[in-house]
Amino acid sequence: MGAGAKLTIDWGALAANYRLLRHTVAPAQVGGVVKADGYGLGSALVADVLLAQGCRHLFVALLCEAQPLMAKGVPVYVLNGLLPGQEAECEALGAIPVLNSLDQARRWADLARALGRPLPAILQIDTGMSRMGMEAAEIDAYLADPAMAQWLDLGFLISHLACADEPEHPANADQAARFRTIAERFPGLPRALDNSGGCFLERGHFDLVRGGIALYGGAPKVGPNPMRPVVALESAIAQLRKVPKGAGVGYGMSFHTARESTIATIPVGYADGWPRSLSNRGAAWIAGHRAPIIGRVSMDSFTLDVTDVPGEHLYPGAPVELIGPHQTIDDVAADAGTISYEILTQLSRRHERQYIGAAALSESLVP
Questions:
Q1: Which residues participate in the annotated binding site for substrate?
Q2: Nearest to 295 by CA among 258, 335, 248, 331
Q3: Could you report the average pLDDT of every consecutive run of 10 residues in the chain (367 residues)?
Q4: Four-point Cα dihedral 165, 325, 350, 9, nearest 10
Q5: What is the CATH number of domain 231-327?
Q6: Cα 364 to Cα 44: distance, rounded to the nearest angstrom
Q7: How many C-alpha atoms does 81 have within 13 Å on its Cβ side?
């Protein structure tokens, strides 16, 4: 109660997005990426929706993110792998690490040897992104070390696409070719390469894909977005004022009015995940009318020029659309000079949260 904005989360849309990915990549399976607390929406709740649709693999980035998901009854994989000293905690929790380096593999194998039984893992290889995954020399060393086969129970061989949101980028074909070549050295091991954008590349999708931003309604590739929006953010006018031509607005008075203007103050700021980079750029919508942001976005508020919005829509408490039918998370991200991932994951816990499509949390919609 008493929040400055309401964040509406549509579980039915999340479920529909999962089904679209599943249909697109069949017969490959679709795993759910629920890192960053389910892209800010609540990882445990997101997982419940995905599991009801048939998802049987969950991915987080860090070991600390796995704990709320361990009772879900499906494998939970830690994409970043384990920092030194986290191995025993991971094993006790029952999470499965992604082994991104020879060092990580050896530490996990050492624990397995000490326990006297093989431990499950995923092996990631670097196919050109130069971020996570074993390089060529490490792969050679891994395959030459008999302890790896003895003590590591690999579930998948994976890699990650760098440019999947640009379907025509040559890196996509190059990485897939490298992945296939290396995968031949691991006969019979299931393979996973594609992320959200990779799901829409016109080729086969191996054995498993990792659905991320597409599940949450973000555009997985350039061009029309095939996904349903999962979030909407609505605030309200907190205060209205008329100012003369030349009036300064906000901290630093970075904006001066070019005419007599009506200004609306909105009780949302960068503490709520509304980027400061939207200062003097971007907009909100009032009753279908675009109202540009003027002045700097503050910690707890920002201001709109509502001079051209019909007066009957302007009053304290009047609804203001921040994310919704007129501007998506991708639109807001473009105005802010960032990506939808950042907008989504930064949405604050200060927002009142409203959940719709609740049936998707408990009812299997698998056809």
A1: 131, 299
A2: 248
A3: 93 97 98 98 96 97 97 98 98 98 98 98 97 97 94 98 95 96 97 97 96 98 96 98 98 97 98 98 97 98 98 98 98 98 96 88 53
A4: -70
A5: 2.40.37.10
A6: 16
A7: 22
Q: Considering the entire predicted model, what is its pTM? A: 0.95
Q: At residue 299, what is the residue type?
A: M
Q: What class is the 11-216 domain?
A: alpha beta
In degrees rounded to 5, what are phi and psi of residue 104? -60, -40
Helix (H) or strand (E) holding 37: helix 35-39
Q: What tokens appear for 173 in the block?
A: 């074909």
First to last CA, the chain: 38
Encode burial over 316-344: b for 16+ CB neighbours within 10 A, e otherwise: eebebbbbbeebbbbbbbebbeebbbbbb
Domain boundaries, the chain: 11-216, 231-327
Burial of 111 (0-12, 13-18, 19+ CB in 10 A): middle
Cα separation, 3 vs 238, in Å, equals 12
Tokens 């959940």 belong to which residue? 355
- Residue list for the binding site: 131, 299
The residue to which tokens 């990915």 are assigned: 21
Q: What is the pLDDT of residue 367?
A: 42
Contact between 342 and 333 under an 8 Å Cβ cutoff? The reply is yes
Active centre residues (catalytic):
35, 251
Q: How far apart are CA 161 and CA 17, in angstroms?
A: 20
Q: What DSSP state is assigned to residue 270?
A: G
